[in-house]
Amino acid sequence: MFPIQRPRRLRRTEALRGMVRETRLSTSGFVYPMFVCPGSGVRTEISTMPGIFQQSVDHFLEECREVEGLGIPAVILFGIPERKDESGSEAASPTGVVQRAIEAVRRAKLNLVVLTDVCLCEYTSHGHCGVIEKGDVANDPTLALLAAEALSHARAGADIVAPSDMMDGRVGAIRKTLDEHSLQDVAILAYAAKYCSGFYGPFREAADSAPQFGDRRSYQMDPANAREALREVALDLEEGADMVMVKPALPYLDIIRQVRDRFDAPVAAYNVSGEYSMVKAAVRNGWLEEQRVVLEILTGIQRAGAEIVLTYHAKDVARWLKSS
User: Fold this and answer.
1) Active site residue 84
2) How many structural domains does the chain have?
């Protein structure tokens, strides 16, 4: 009771605040998303995502060296193929851009954990995440294509494959395929609770993956549902996922917390393109202080229960934490 209890005593100085701080933001769980495209000497800034680039493997490797030097432990790769077709056949090509990028990291002996996004939307001419039959995305025929894509990434040297398509049964199909090819040590990070969100807009420019018709509501989750997310997570873990992800992060902090409380597996959250771009736009207009806001956002995501955070802010945050 006041005046005996005075919580402000422990807020009086930065040293005191730091001593009792409950959540300590660290880069140890950061994953930096990168977009790899064909060619050489290519480095094109994404107009809606300042500071983020589509880049050929040579420039990609340069940035990977920078990422490693900043102490960021991991990258996740998204590919922009040379050509697209109805089935996204380049996704599983051993000479695809993602596969060549993985091999470049391995040849350079960089100390980075390499994750790959496993999906077809960047590779299909229609921009959807699976095979189209009778005007709809067909679940079961898509599974073999996703498993083949994951296998090609694993053979190229990926540490973790991350299926983001939201097809039912894809984690089990990928785990079975990897195990059959003696790749049982390759881990799976499942985009388990991926919502059909309006925050993905800038990413669709970055990955050239906007659907050419309709939307993704029939396979990505309804933003109104929470219990369904827990069911999705449980199913992915039963099928062999090693880690699970909630995407996006900020509108779904409650989901992150529920997943963390319910399950023992590592929990990731994706601080997605729209969340990044909103901050960048507000900063450019002088409405927000970038460092303070970004650190607050990422601390909030970690506080909600995510040990792993995929974020385009990773490099900036690593520099800020080093200088603090």
Assistant:
1) no
2) 1
